[in-house]
Amino acid sequence: MGTATAWDIRGSYFESCNCDPICPCRRIDGVPGGRSTHGICTGVLSWLIEKGNAGGTDLTGLAVALAIRYDDDEPGSPWSWILYLDDGASEEQQKALEAIFSGQLGGDALTHFPWAWKSSKLLAVRLVAIELDHTRRRQWLRIRDHVTVRIRDRHYGKETVTCVIPGHDRSGEELVADELLVNDAPLAFFYSGTCGYGTTFAYSG
After folding, report:
1. pTM over 0.90
2. Is 156 exposed, middle or buried (0-12, 13-18, 19+ CB in 10 A)?
3. Pairing mode, strands 27-28 and 63-71
4. pLDDT of residue 5
């Protein structure tokens, strides 16, 4: 996979982190976001690719997730992250997904993925069974022995909320997580009642 590889993926997205809802990192009623609730952000991001291609490699139907951590007070707030790739992917598909989500192929990744445009540390890449359901307001994700995320419901507010990762051009919905669990050293955390967010995505490069 070289930097000239053309790629395009689209589908559904949801995330949850340890911030209080509404996550202050988001754009709220058009006002840019700021610091995370607690200064240190830990969470999980997930994508279900409904249609995708990279250099002729079909990526349709595959799932990707990240477990993440960053500290607002660390210079540059670099991200530490673990990349989870769908174990249903072939070796060629795995390479394409890693290249896209690490930012190696450029394009929209360098606009939407903070871990790609900032200094960051990729802690691990894991090929795993990703079980997920992106049903609106009932999203859930499970990676055995590592990650569990369950959305309780929407956040009952009237604010318009958008997020840089799926894109501020996309309307989304602030959510409340029933459970957010990561147990994958060096990342380990558990929360309930924290924020979530759901929408669609479309990236290309």
Report:
1. yes
2. exposed
3. unpaired
4. 86
